[in-house]
Each structure stands twice: as C-alpha cells, then as structure tokens.
Write a structure and sequence with these properties.
Blueprint: H1 8-22, H2 40-52, H3 58-71
Helix pairs in contact: 1-2, 2-3
C-alpha cells in the first residue's frame, strides 16, 4: 500500500493500524472519519513512529494519543 497518497482509504488504514498497535481500549472513539485529509501528513508522522517502534512506553502512548486528539476534527 502506498501511504504517500493522501486518500481517505489510506487515512483509515493508518488510524486502524495506530489503534491496533496501541491496543487502544477506547479505539471505537477514534474513527478515521474524525480526521481530515488536511492533517494527513501529521497523522502519517504519528503512524510512522508507532509502526517503527517495537515497544512504546506509557508516556509515549499518552503523548501519541494526545497528539491524535489534537488532530481530530472539532
């Protein structure tokens, strides 16, 4: 999959991947539809960090979830 293409499908793939890797208990609250393609690059950065780290500390998870919350559509 070519995630360099800014499509709704790629955005959804990244959000679902982040949720799975972070094992988010409240994953249902974070839907791809809550994000805009305007934030694609920022979400890609979060996705890249999450997918390339074998383990994340609790503080890293909290920071990433906070960043995703900031990127959500209001």
């Amino acid at each position: 999959m070519d995630l360099s293409q800014k499509t709704p499908e790629n955005l959804e793939t990244m959000i679902e991947g982040i949720k799975a890797k972070l094992r988010m208990a409240s994953g249902a609250a974070m839907q791809a539809s809550a994000f805009s393609l305007e934030q694609y690059d920022d979400i890609y950065d979060v996705y890249d960090i999450v997918m390339n780290k074998p383990n994340l500390s609790i503080s890293e998870v909290e920071a990433l979830v906070s960043e995703l919350g900031r990127l959500r559509n209001k």
